[in-house]
Write a structure and sequence with these properties.
515 residues, Growth Hormone, Chain: A, disordered C terminus, mainly alpha, 2% strand, transmembrane
């Protein structure tokens, strides 16, 4: 593809790593819940517990990982995280063939993979910003988004066919191999990495761990985005194991039918990914986040009306299409604004804090909805999640509001960007500032950069950190969430929460987990 060639050989290897890992992820769509239902014959509550255990344990263990990742070479961390996930997932088919696979084994693998996901996410955002010029990040991420949605369209039906032919663990093998392929491709990147920042003298580990949370708390825009994406991702992921249990248990759909129901609507993700950037250029990021955020909200409620037979499968596909198109438009605009507001030196910690928040939200919501399903039934629990999801619209950017100027953080010796690119028109005085997505100076040049244009103004806007300008999607973030798709980070942000940041980037614990 032209965008790959124009961005150079090293980016082409990163693109290959993303492509192989995305295909592996979607081939293994909901592999662990399917294994739990088809091979271990567990109930709905224990199916949900897989996601709960992976998310909760990963969040607990990942708290100190943000600063740890910040001060280490990012590419090596990405490769090692891929290799850990390959090794952990490879134990599942081996145990199955030896008739030794247990529910506890699935839980342990889910936890290991989820922790590796968080390491990959924290490292990959900074790595992408160093590899691709800021003015070309939009082009790069548009290509990643398209290949992700193509994989989501092809992978689930193919995975369902593999399960039908070879058994419930058939898709775990290519998923594990996809992580190995990703690691090998990333190792082929030759461009030297920038040296990681040095740990400031006298900085406590507690202060470093909290740095990402402080950056989020200091910006109104980040606070709203955090609340919306974490809650949305948590509710969608809470529904995912219930729909797997309901579709393949109560309603009697085959793995192939279930895969078709997930995969075909994902073609809408290709459309959403293609129109997201032009929509931002025309209407501004705030309008796109608001419109796409509202568009995807009815999808979960529609899942409550899925019934048996072809008509039920059609309802399932329409609800999925709503979720997917809205998320495919929302995610690139969201990822851009998050990078712009994170600060160059705190990107890894902000992404790690975001991922931890997403994991905690998913674990809590999945556990709560598992209890609700046990007390009522899966259909009632899904309908309740659909109603609750409407409340997340409160945290969308209904109107712009000024935020404080950047402040120096003496505890971490970093600059945290707290101003909103939507409300800082008055700061742009240089007539040579280029429009959003245009060519910008390289990171560290110290000049103002143009951010995303607002929906209601034509004036140019700026943010201070050059390294943050223009990114459409950052390495390692979750692919867009779809109900029934476990998220996995690949090399580009893509996992909200990651279909919902499309599944924050999700995610941990359910069989096809990606980093």
């Amino acid at each position: 593809m032209a965008f790959r060639l124009s961005l150079g050989r090293d980016f082409a290897w990163l693109w290959r790593a993303y492509a192989v890992s995305a295909l592996g992820t979607w081939l293994a769509l909901d592999a662990f819940p399917m294994i739990a239902v088809l091979a271990l014959h567990v109930d709905a509550a224990r199916v949900s517990l897989i996601a709960v255990a992976g998310g909760a344990a990963a969040a607990l263990l990942a708290v100190p990982l943000g600063p740890w990742v910040e001060y280490r070479p990012k590419r090596a961390l990405m490769v090692n995280a891929d290799l850990v996930r390959f090794g952990a997932l490879a134990t599942v088919p081996a145990a199955y063939l030896l008739d030794a696979l247990t529910y506890a084994h699935l839980l342990v693998v889910a936890v290991v993979v989820a922790v590796a996901n968080i390491v990959f996410v924290g490292a990959s955002g900074s790595h992408l910003k160093a590899l691709v010029p800021a003015g070309r990040l939009g082009d790069a991420n548009g290509g990643f988004e398209s290949v992700n949605w193509l994989s989501t369209a092809v992978g689930p039906p193919a995975g369902g066919a593999l399960i039908g032919l070879f058994g419930p663990v058939a898709t775990v093998v290519p998923n594990a191999l996809s992580f190995l392929g990703s690691a090998l491709a990333i190792r082929r990147i030759r461009r030297p990495e920038p040296a990681p920042p040095e740990r400031p003298a006298g900085t406590s580990r507690r202060a470093e761990t909290a740095a990402g949370w402080r950056v989020i708390a200091a910006s109104r825009d980040l606070r709203l985005l955090f609340a919306h994406t974490v809650l949305t991702g948590a509710l969608i992921m809470a529904v995912a194991p219930l729909m797997t249990f309901r579709m393949m248990g109560d309603l009697g759909f085959s793995p192939l039918e279930y895969g078709i129901g997930i995969g075909v609507p994902c073609l809408g993700g290709l459309l959403g990914a293609r129109v997201s950037r032009p929509l931002v250029a025309r209407f501004g990021s705030r309008a796109v986040l608001l419109g796409a955020g509202v568009l995807r909200l009815p999808g979960v409620l529609g899942l409550a009306f899925v019934g048996p037979g072809p008509s039920g499968l059609l309802v399932f596909m329409v609800a999925q299409l709503d979720l997917i198109v809205g998320s495919a438009i929302f995610n690139p605009a969201f990822a851009t604004l998050r990078l712009q507001l994170s600060g160059e030196r705190t990107t890894a910690r902000v992404l790690t804090a975001w991922k931890i928040g997403g994991q905690v939200g998913i674990a809590a919501a999945t556990l709560l909805w598992a209890v609700l399903a046990a007390a009522t039934d899966a259909g009632t629990a899904v309908a309740t999640a659909g109603v609750a999801l409407a409340g997340t619209a409160f945290f969308l950017p209904w109107r712009p509001r000024p935020t404080p100027a950047p402040e120096h953080d003496p505890q971490t010796d970093v600059q945290t960007v707290q101003q909103s690119p939507e409300t800082k028109n008055e700061q742009t005085t240089n007539a040579d500032v280029k429009p959003a997505g245009g060519d910008v100076e390289p990171a560290g040049a110290g000049v103002e950069q143009t951010a995303v244009q607002p929906a209601d103004a034509s004036a140019k806007q700026t943010v201070v950190d050059t390294a943050d300008a223009g990114a459409e999607r950052t390495a390692g973030e979750p692919a867009p969430h779809t109900v029934g798709a476990t998220g996995r980070e690949t090399g580009i942000e893509t996992r909200p929460e990651n279909v919902a940041e499309t599944r924050s980037d999700a995610e941990a614990g359910a069989g096809s987990v990606r980093g």
